[in-house]
Design a protein that fits this description.
heterodimer, A: 319 residues, mainly alpha, globular, B: 254 residues, alpha/beta, 6-stranded mixed β-sheet, 4-stranded antiparallel β-sheet, 10 strands, 38% helix, 24% strand
Chain lengths: 319, 254
């Protein structure tokens, strides 16, 4: 049973990462926006929901936080999603008119800014310390059922992944996605055909950020306790790797990529400490992601589920 | 009735005056050809009209409204649709998707209606597909409807671009060298089609063109440019017989 329990945990993490990858795929895969702020949307979702659903801590030596609302978890999840979308909208408003590389720089620094605010505003977030005792949704109800809480949470997370997958697929394949794809291919054409490019980019950014916020809320309510070090830029880079490995532009690919990344990260955790170079193992584990990424780009540039034909057509010059 | 009124347009890049005091009117259902040798300022004028450049001075009025400060997309929504000199296909999208993108006022272009398929999205989409089919048949691209636009030949891309701009059902269609790279047979049919569209859909055309023959055949009015200014304007015959235009093309001083 121990193995099954472990798989459930890995599965839940993979579900959370899948949601992050779905959001990133809307930004990069559909719209061609270089977003390096994903960790911030993840963090804002997690902290918003945590602060709203925990009571105000009692005064004590370490309890710096003076705010807490003790609201139902459902409220926290919705608020975390919405606030992350708002943050996405705000960051995009300042930067979305920038071209590729500059957008990447502004989003990356915005994300660090958000993390530092969380780190420093201890009255709100407990600062560098851990924000603890985040409630799990329906914990007492699930306790009366013959299944473990992880089974319930696994189904909850993957249920939401399924719903988001369907909605994002439909957006991507519908007229809305068509405009996003046009922007990805060529801004000027979209403008010439009367599409308000900036508005569409803002929407894309906000929606993708929102689903990353949802992932953050689900993460916070699963792990009980969160701290700023969980939201380093490396999360953003892992999600980038997931989207590229899975195949940019494909939502199924984003999910597969996220699962691959989580498996790579979690399975290698159990390499015994007695192997050579075990001291360096944590870095080697991160390097493994890079190796897989390079291998995919070399042997399958469109990604595991990406569209090779489109990539081919996109680079041809005509005659 | 005047549809487009251009008054005193001026544009400089650094120390170079690209366009100087360009003024002309386009009447409704007119076909206006803008000609001139390389460097005459045709393309800059075109970009000023379509909002891709902002003029240093002068105004552009469309349908009685000052659009000088409007962005390209806002002008397009008012019914001024442009094409590009080098066909700008969305190479990673299918021919059909390229066509459907041009639909104006599509209810499904909102995230929610697209995700949930509500608000008349599918009915509108079906109607647009019918229109796209008709145009693609005409342009002999129907068989290629599911092909990525990036796989089309240069001439086919040009045709697709024309078809896509017609999908937007513009009042004024601004064409940047539409005939370049298209075989003469097809050029003839396109010119015929332009004449038909003018009557059927009450369309007005302005095109910048190197193919003087094509301009002379269909244009009602020709605007001849040289060194960033309008040198000669009138019927094709008048402009053609204007010695200054000949001089301009031959590189003489005027």
């Amino acid at each position: 049973m121990a193995l099954l329990d472990l798989l459930l945990v890995v599965g839940i993490i993979a579900g959370v990462y899948s949601l992050l990858a779905i959001g990133m795929n809307m930004h990069w895969g559909d719209t061609g926006l270089l977003n390096f702020a994903h960790a911030a949307f993840f963090a804002v979702g997690a902290y918003t929901s945590a602060i709203l659903t925990t009571p105000t801590p009692e005064a004590g030596l370490l309890a710096e936080r003076v705010v807490g609302f003790d609201l139902p978890v459902a409220v926290g999840i919705v608020a975390g999603t919405v606030l992350a979308a708002v943050l996405g909208f705000v960051i995009a408003t300042t930067s979305v008119r920038l071209e590729g590389d500059y957008l990447a720089m502004v989003t990356l620094s915005s994300a660090e800014l958000v993390r530092l605010v969380i780190h420093n505003e201890a009255w709100l977030t407990t600062g560098a310390q851990t924000l603890k005792n985040i409630p799990r949704p329906m914990e007492s109800t699930v306790a009366t059922l013959p299944v473990s809480y992880d089974v319930f949470y696994f189904l909850l997370v993957w249920g939401l992944v399924g719903v988001c997958y369907l909605l994002f697929e439909r957006m991507s394949n519908g007229p809305f996605g068509r405009v996003l794809h046009a922007i990805r291919e060529n801004d000027d054409v979209a403008l010439a055909l009367g599409k308000d490019v900036t508005q569409f980019k803002l929407k894309s950014f906000a929606i993708g950020a929102g689903v990353a916020g949802l992932a953050g809320t689900l993460w916070a309510h699963y792990v009980y306790a969160i701290s700023p070090v969980m939201f380093l830029p490396s999360i953003t880079f892992l999600i980038w790797a997931a989207v590229i490995i899975g195949g940019a532009g494909s939502y199924a690919g984003a999910i597969v990529g996220a699962v691959v990344i989580v498996l790579l990260r979690q399975v290698t955790r159990f390499i015994p400490g007695s192997v050579p170079f075990s001291d360096q193992m944590s870095y080697l584990r991160l390097m493994l992601v890079g190796v897989v990424l390079v291998a995919v780009l070399y042997y399958r540039p469109e990604g595991l589920l990406g569209n090779a034909e489109r990539l081919q057509a996109g680079t041809s010059e005509g005659d | 009735m005047t549809l487009l009124s251009v008054d005193g347009l001026r544009k400089t890049f650094g120390g170079i005056v690209a366009v100087e005091d360009v003024s002309f009117d386009v009447e409704r259902q007119d076909i206006v050809g803008v000609i001139g040798p390389n460097g005459a300022g045709k393309s800059t004028t075109f970009r000023l009209l379509t909002g891709f450049h902002t003029p240093d001075a002068g105004t552009v009025e469309f349908d009685g409204e000052d659009v000088t400060d409007l962005s390209p997309d806002a002008r397009a929504r008012k019914g001024m649709i442009r094409t590009f000199q080098i066909a700008q296909e969305l190479t990673g999208m299918s021919v059909m998707q390229n066509m459907l993108l041009a639909a104006q006022g599509h209810p499904g272009e909102r995230a929610v209606t697209s995700a949930l398929g509500i608000g008349g999205t599918s009915a509108f989409e079906a109607d647009q597909r019918d229109q796209a089919e008709e145009l693609l048949q005409l342009l002999e691209l129907w068989e290629l409807r599911d092909e990525y636009a990036g796989n089309l030949s240069g001439g086919q891309r040009k045709l697709l671009e024309l078809g896509r701009s017609l999908m937007a059902d513009p009042d004024l269609l601004l064409l940047d060298e539409p005939m370049a790279g298209i075989n003469p047979d097809l050029t003839d049919r396109l010119l015929e089609r332009i004449l038909e569209l003018r009557d059927e859909r009450d369309m007005t055309f302005l095109f910048v063109e190197h193919d003087i023959d094509a301009v002379m055949r269909v244009a009602d009015t020709v605007v001849g440019m040289h060194n960033g200014a309008v040198l000669s304007m009138g019927t094709p015959e008048e402009v053609q017989s204007d010695d200054r235009m000949l001089e301009a093309y031959l590189g003489g001083e005027v």
